[in-house]
Amino acid sequence: IGRPTAVTLRSFAGARTPTGVVLKWKTGSEAGTLGFNVYRQVGKTKVKVNKALVAGSSRATGSAYSLVDRKGPHGRAVRYLLQEVEHSGARNWVAQTTVSR
Length: 101
Fold this sequence. Notes:
single chain
C-alpha cells in the first residue's frame, strides 16, 4: 500500500458475525513495530476502530491478532485499513480488506 515498513504482513481479513466484524491479521516479522491501528472506511470517511493502539509483539517470527468492530455498518460493504505504527512514530498503511454485506 505504501513505502517499505518494519512489518512483514502475512494476511489481513474480516468477516461479519452476530457481534460485529471480526478482523484478523498475521505478521511474519515485526522488527521496529510498536503496534497497529485499524480504520473503517465508508465512502471517503475513515474512522479508527480501536480505542488504544493494538500492541505489537516485536517478535522476529511475527504474531497473530484479532479485533472486533461492533459498530461496522450492516447492509453495505465496508473497507478496513491496517496501519502499522513504528517505534520511531512513523505510521504506514500496510493492508486493506473489504467485508461484504
